[in-house]
Amino acid sequence: MSESKQLQKHSLECLRLEADCRQMAWNVQSPSLRSHFLRMGQVWFTMAVSGSSARAGQCSSEAETQTP
User: What is the pTM of this model?
Assistant: First the structure.
């Protein structure tokens, strides 16, 4: 797969995860969890528009270590 196709696939996956986070934010009662999911959605959105593989790897590590 070409690098451009890989970046496009990565961006689409990040946007899907962003949408999932936003949906979860509306489905929880806890304000702290809602805030967490909205922040995580923003992280995924930033990754989607960054287009940088190096940055994406860094953000993935950050996203996996954040807790609500």
Answer: 0.69
